[in-house]
């Protein structure tokens, strides 16, 4: 199986929401990257996204090389075969549809050598139930978070049939590309961060549906308490500082009961029915009407870069 020193070329299959950012980070790690997508329109959009992302990174002084040099490492292929030819590591990031992924992996099984590491970016699917059995010894998941060129986290988990070494190689590769790679012991739907976020979502919509507060109050409460604290202490170390016995007593005394849902939260259904889908429609729980959406997203990225710079200092020198 490929080792870190063997990896020279990376293939990124899919150039939609996640593909360009993922390709950028691999290219910034010094790797030659070839991207593939079915649609010419998606390819052109990906090229535009890459140029805009590199402009942002240049403005934030986050490039160790000229942007033209790094961007020059990213190429596009018209077919899957052309994209993966000579690749040492394959990152799949196509649409989250089981049929589409099965079709792609059936194709990969016929053309990819046995020593090439194949990673899926799937968020909701169990890819290990979809890929052909013969690919399982080389199959892992590298789960990135959007926007992938900004959010440091990538969760890594291997199939049961794959050796531990290929997961460790993937972690080393991601770290070389500037990511915070977290190695999981075994697969579970939602991984770590998404499962925690889903727990928060259940409580958020319980509070909203029952009229305890509004969306802005929830955000202010989070921003002024456990969210910035987590930048320093995380979640588990916070328990140590607060006292393991306090957390024990909270469980023992049943001081909290999680809401149980047997239906979609009303406030969420109302947003869907109204077509208020968030920033992409101009309105969600906040109103972005009349605002330059690209400027709003650029401001978001700038502020995320700033907070992650500070967070990295804390992670590099933990309490």
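Sequence proposed for the structure above (319 residues):
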């Amino acid at each position: 199986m490929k080792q870190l020193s063997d990896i020279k070329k990376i293939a990124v299959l899919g150039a939609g929401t996640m593909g360009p950012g993922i390709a950028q980070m691999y290219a910034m790690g010094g790797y030659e990257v070839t991207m593939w997508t079915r649609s010419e329109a998606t390819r052109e959009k990906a090229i535009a996204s890459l140029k805009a992302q590199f402009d942002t990174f240049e403005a934030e002084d986050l490039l160790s090389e000229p942007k033209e040099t790094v961007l020059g490492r990213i190429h596009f292929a018209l077919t899957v075969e052309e994209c993966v030819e000579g690749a040492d590591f394959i990152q799949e990031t196509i649409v989250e549809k089981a049929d589409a992924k099965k079709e792609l992996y059936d194709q990969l099984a016929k053309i990819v050598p046995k020593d090439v590491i194949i990673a899926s970016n799937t968020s909701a699917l169990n890819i290990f139930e979809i890929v052909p059995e013969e690919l399982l010894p080389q199959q892992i998941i590298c789960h990135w978070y959007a926007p992938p060129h900004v959010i440091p986290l990538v969760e890594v988990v291997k199939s049961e049939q794959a050796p531990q070494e290929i997961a460790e190689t993937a972690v080393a590769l991601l770290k070389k590309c500037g990511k915070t790679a977290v190695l999981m012991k075994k697969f579970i739907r939602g991984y770590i961060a998404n499962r925690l976020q889903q727990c928060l979502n259940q409580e958020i919509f319980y509070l909203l549906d029952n009229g305890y507060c509004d969306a802005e109050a929830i955000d202010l409460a989070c921003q002024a308490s456990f969210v910035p604290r987590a930048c320093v202490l995380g979640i588990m170390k916070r328990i140590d500082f607060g006292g393991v016995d306090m957390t024990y007593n909270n469980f023992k005394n049943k001081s909290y009961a999680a809401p149980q849902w047997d239906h979609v939260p009303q406030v969420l259904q109302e947003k869907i029915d109204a077509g208020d889908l968030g920033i992409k429609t101009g309105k969600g729980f906040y109103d972005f009407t009349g605002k330059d959406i690209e400027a709003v997203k650029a401001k978001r990225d700038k502020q995320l870069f700033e907070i992650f710079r500070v967070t990295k200092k804390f992670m590099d020198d933990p309490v």
